[in-house]
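[Meeting: bench + compute handoff]

Bench side (C.D.) handed over the final construct sequence. Compute side (W.E.) agreed to return the predicted structure before the next meeting so the bench team could plan truncations. Sequence as handed over:
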Amino acid sequence: MNMLLWTGHATQEHVPVFEALKRTGFDGVEVPVFDISDPSHYRWLSGILDDIGLERTVVAIIPDEASSPISADPACRRAAADHLKRVIDCSQALGATVLAGPWFQPLGVFSGERPSEAELERCAEIHREIVPLANAAGLACALEPLNRFEAHLLNTCEQVIAYADRLDTEGFGVLYDTFHANIEEKDSIAALVDLHASGWLAHVHIAENDRGTPGQGHAPIRETIAALHRLGYDGWLTIEAFGRGVPELAAATRVWRDFFTSPEEVCSKGFEFISSCLKECP
């Protein structure tokens, strides 16, 4: 379960949430690593999650244009690398196994044009530096393409496969998100099959078309899970749902209204739905 449903920075007040997720049946949590000021905080959180019995992945973003990997300004690109190195330090302290998220450009910042060759290569230069560091810290990398209303560099599976081929770096992978694919792909299941065939599929977000409770919208989640089963995927299925608990993220992702009655509904109903989908797989 992605903790962005509640917060951008998990603290002591979220311990009851972790405990409830464990009782529901979740194997782990995806922890936002947005505050990178204190790795010791994540070391503390690692102990809490160990005691509860939850594994963890992390989600990271590029915080602003001053730390953008695609910037034409070398100082901004260097700040991007420094930011991601600190993310890695915090993620390692947490004991995370996957570094997920759209850590290729800041959310909601656009050039007004299609992604340029220069932007792609500038980003790849930073990622070639960062991916081996993440791997050395025990993190598999899972870069998440976003829909065109949130980012312009990487939107489709075809684009991110080409980017991964450009990067050609061991330990790099791609995150498939049912919400974004439902917007951007002409055939989201075919795109998933192509991504798996490319060898780059590393992580999966289960997200409804309105970012609410999985199974209560029209994103092809059941079909996605069936396809993943056929393909032999055995990695994470992480529920990602957004409310208004993180105002900055709600604004960046255009969450203007409530999509569910409570976070507890998302967790319980989402878990039940995914479990039912898995049981249907032969």
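W.E. noted at the follow-up: The CA atoms of residues 165 and 200 lie 9 Å apart. C.D. will use this when planning the next construct.
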